[in-house]
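Give me structure tokens for this 431-residue protein.
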Amino acid sequence: MNQNAKIAWDYLMSKIQNQIGVAGLLGNLYAESGLQPTNLQDTYNKAFGLDDEAYTRAVDNGAYENFVNDSAGYGLAQWTWWSRKKNLLDFATSRGTSIGNIYTQLEFLWDELSSYGLTAMLRGATSIRSASDEILTKFERPLDQSDKMKEIRAQYGQQFYDEFANEDGENTMSNSSMVCHTHISPNKYSPRAKPIDRITIHCVVGQASPEALGHLFADPKRYASSNYGVGPDGRIGMFVEEKDCSWCSSSRLNDDRAVTIETASDNFHPYAVTDAAYAALLDLCEDICRRNGKRKLLWIADKDKALAYEPATDEMVLTVHRWFANKSCPGEYLYSRQGQIAEEVTRRLQEDDEEMTYDQFKEYMNQYREELQAADGSDWSQDDCNWAISSGLIQGGGNVNGKTQYMFRDFMTREQLAAVLHRFAKKIGKE
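Here you go.
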């Protein structure tokens, strides 16, 4: 996003110690001010005849004395009410800083959040959307508190989470940037005990959205979760980070090694999924493999062979829930397509990996030069090209379909340069 986003993320993480809560808060601040601490509410720039920096300077040096009562939103949180603006001004004055200093505003923001009783909520948040909604309705309180506005602010929070969450801590496992909804479940082992070398695809047995799955897995009494969920529209939710082990496949041994994916499906045989969900599932499997350094996704239909197989460092293996419990999961629709999924994902992973041979390179280069040689000179150089031809400096390099090729757009070798210079020297009598 910007440098201010990183400053705000680091400061708030030091206070909240919960990436979910920080993301929910930061998305709101971004919606309010773009995370610009000197931001003056747009409608007042024209009314006051001042840009953001000029307004800030005027408040700082005392030239503008109506900061408290002018009703103009200002700063990271767009403080507007007179008492809050007075407190902000007094806070900055007590610290001897500009009213627009980002660190001063972040400290003041934290004091306000504490007085509003919102710090515990942020520290315990498990859903970006719920944390964002709490800040929107209980702290920022804009006129527009519609579901659409809540969704927009939560999406901003998700973007910050995607950008910064994986930078924190010692665990370097990343999460998918394809996620559009995050609701972290308490049902997990943290951290996972094994490196990731499996993907286990499940069917939900219902066309559940990422939001519905997040709500389902938030219940600690369900003893269930997954790393990701794919909705019927192809949107993806995350409920357990990849660094942690979900409770999904009735096998701790499997889930410690697997990234688990619940996929929205029909609730009747063969438990089909939508085209959008299937396409997103393929994209997600590819993304998981790429981020974990895998170039092959394998499907071994024989359960015993699959579970005994030790994948190479660049391999990922598909496993299924029915191998570990008396279930039909992932349903016949997805089970019958495990080989197809593995083949397609592997194709994508390897499609750019083929090395070009020297003979292939020469063939392609010759084709490219033939295209250049056959092309006419550009319009801007037409007079220059005609002069070079008429003066004899440039001579044709062959005849194609009755047309002499002067190869004006081809590369020039040193021997060709020597020939042109020799002709020029003869022309001016300097040979």
